User: What shape does this take?
Amino acid sequence: MRALFMIVGAIILVAGIACLIHPRWASPASKKEVDIDNHKVIFETTKYTEIPKPWSVVAVLLGGALVFVGSRRA
Assistant: This one.
């Protein structure tokens, strides 16, 4: 059980640090193909999602707490 706390805590900790370093997450929104004369033109749009810094800080603290709790001896 303690190993599970440490693994989950490490994943959350790394995700929180990554969000602090790179707070924008990009995902494809839509793709449209249009034929103009004899040429195929592809339009792609990207949706950007901003991850708030307080959420990243909470993730770092929560991940650190889980790693600490998992590393304590009974």
Strands lie at 24-36, 39-50. Helices lie at 2-21, 53-71. The CA atoms of residues 3 and 57 lie 23 Å apart.
